Fold this protein.
Amino acid sequence: GGSAYAFFKYQMQRAAEAALDVHDRVSRDFCHKFGRCYGAVEGYRLDDADYVIVMSNSFSTIGKAAIDRLRAGQHKIGLLRLRLIRPFPHQEIAWLLGDRRAVAVIDQNLSVGKGGVLHSEIASVFASNAAPPLLSFISGLGGRRFRAGEFDRIAAALRRAADEGATAEAQLLYSAEELEQMREMLRIAHGETFELPAGIAVQE
């Protein structure tokens, strides 16, 4: 019945919350024994970063390479990779992002009608705290790889957001070539010129 179901669902929630401490303890033990450390989050070049890009999964390796390149161009930018989504490491994320000038979240998934899933999760961290400007970018859908220069666009958007504030609209990372291919497909489907939606960050 509903009463038993509610009780056990609540117990699952409490157990998941406790799992954060267990994860931290096991991670420390593993790091001590093997010299490789895998916390719930991984910070990359965050010590003096004014701007942070948040990512997850294997695309983060591309992100790290982009951070190194941007750093060589005197951009004070770092990367935060989330290894653990459930339970969500709220406190650690708030501590690592709270004092930055601006933050960009790159989502590889899209909750239709809401936006980037990870962006919403990060925004929830600051529901009761002062938040840096928080930008949302979508890429990697369907296995799409990042294009050269897209991280430059994100870095430029972060600087603008720090000065002017952030837009709530998610931006789809796209290349000019992809845009032309899409226009042609839509022209064939509709038999006429078809305007694409706003919010596409086109990389020439």
The radius of gyration is 20 Å. The chain has a mean pLDDT of 90.
